[in-house]
């Protein structure tokens, strides 16, 4: 039996269209294929078929996290499931972990973080716009998660509301402006993640990261191409989920000139390091904690 209150995916024979609905007692599902009785769905099991009033079979499936993410109401561009999965892995979202997020928007990533962190984890999301806070909270409740989520109405220009977090993710327009606040909000060695849509933003963020206690920097984008599941005519789909944003990850790491100087550098890398040192000198920044400059002779 499928419990009332469950999120159920209905799949129709017409082009395998999918609809995600909450099963409520006495609330039948009306569609172009006829009426699907809530009682009949309740008496069925996931993975079975139930017939409508027009005798059309409807498949009933349990809603996975992927289904729930795709079913969220949105007023903002949400982060795609393909990106959410990798973000959660890179941040180490899981039981007992505390993850900071800003801003939450429609709550797509918040939903994923809440799912992975579970009852013993904690997600603290910061959002400057109250209407997005309300939408994100509604989406969390609809998706059946969120008990471990605190959404704070706060502009992160004023700093984050907690410290000693295990990881932090920023989905804001100018993340480089908040790096000092971010460092104060996490444990030593914590993971940071960022999402920005343009190359120019990536460059500005990288310049910000090179001035502070950050290392193990990664810049990537995740492209997903489906293939048509036809055994004797296997080929790619005509469309794909290509660029949706740049993901940048790094670790909180106190840096020293001694460590950097110990790296074996080729000709190109030496030129890149010299250019970086020139930028740092021009800005007056020194990311090293020993007062030295990488590459100085001893």
TrEMBL record:
What enzyme category does the UniProt record give? transferase
Q: Where is this region: Disordered?
A: 261-298
UniProt GO MF annotations: tRNA (adenine(58)-N1)-methyltransferase activity
Write out the entry's keywords from A to Z.
Methyltransferase, S-adenosyl-L-methionine, Transferase, tRNA processing
What residues does S-adenosyl-L-methionine bind to? Answer: 106-109, 127, 155, 171
The record's EC number reads 2.1.1.220
Extent of Acidic residues compositional bias: 289-298
Cellular component per GO?
Answer: tRNA (m1A) methyltransferase complex
Specify the signal sequence span.
Answer: none
- Which terms does the UniProt entry file under GO BP? tRNA methylation
Residue ranges constituting the tRNA (adenine(58)-N(1))-methyltransferase catalytic subunit TRM61 C-terminal domain according to the UniProt record:
71-238
- Kindly name one Pfam family recorded for this protein: GCD14
Catalytic activity reported: adenosine(58) in tRNA + S-adenosyl-L-methionine = N(1)-methyladenosine(58) in tRNA + S-adenosyl-L-homocysteine + H(+)
The Swiss-Prot or TrEMBL record describes its family as follows: Belongs to the class I-like SAM-binding methyltransferase superfamily. TRM61 family.
Instruction: Fill in the subunit field for this protein.
Output: Homotetramer composed of a dimer of dimers.
Function, as annotated, reads: Catalyzes the S-adenosyl-L-methionine-dependent formation of N(1)-methyladenine at position 58 (m1A58) in tRNA.
What name has this protein been given in UniProt?
A: tRNA (adenine(58)-N(1))-methyltransferase TrmI
Q: Which organism is it from?
A: Desulfovibrio piger
């Amino acid at each position: 039996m499928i419990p009332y209150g469950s999120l159920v995916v209905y799949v129709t024979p017409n082009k395998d269209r999918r609809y995600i609905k909450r099963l409520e007692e006495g609330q039948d599902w009306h569609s172009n294929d006829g009426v699907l009785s809530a009682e009949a769905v309740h008496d069925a099991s996931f993975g079975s078929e139930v017939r409508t009033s027009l005798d059309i079979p409807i498949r009933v499936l349990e809603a996975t996290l992927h289904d729930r993410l795709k079913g969220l109401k949105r007023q903002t561009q949400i982060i795609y499931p393909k990106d959410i999965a990798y973000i959660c892995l890179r941040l180490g979202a899981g039981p007992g972990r505390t993850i900071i997020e800003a801003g939450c928007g429609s709550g797509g990533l918040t939903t994923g973080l809440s799912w992975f962190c579970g009852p013993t984890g904690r997600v603290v999301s910061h959002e400057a716009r109250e209407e997005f806070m309300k939408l994100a909270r509604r989406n969390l409740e609809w998706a059946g998660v969120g008990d471990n989520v605190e959404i704070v109405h706060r502009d992160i220009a004023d700093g984050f509301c907690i410290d000693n977090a295990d990881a932090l993710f920023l989905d804001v327009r100018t993340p480089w402006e908040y790096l000092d606040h971010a460092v104060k909000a996490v444990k030593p060695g914590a993971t940071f993640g960022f999402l920005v849509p343009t190359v120019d933003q990536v460059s500005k963020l990288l310049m910000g990261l090179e001035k502070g206690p950050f290392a193990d920097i990664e810049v990537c984008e995740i492209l997903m191409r489906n293939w048509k599941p036809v055994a004797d005519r296997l080929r790619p789909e005509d469309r794909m989920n290509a660029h949706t944003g740049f993901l940048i990850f790094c670790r909180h790491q106190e840096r020293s000139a001694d460590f950097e100087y110990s790296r074996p550098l080729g000709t190109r890398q030496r030129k890149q390091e010299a250019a970086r040192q020139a930028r740092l000198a021009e800005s007056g920044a020194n990311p090293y904690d020993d007062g030295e400059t990488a590459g100085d002779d001893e």
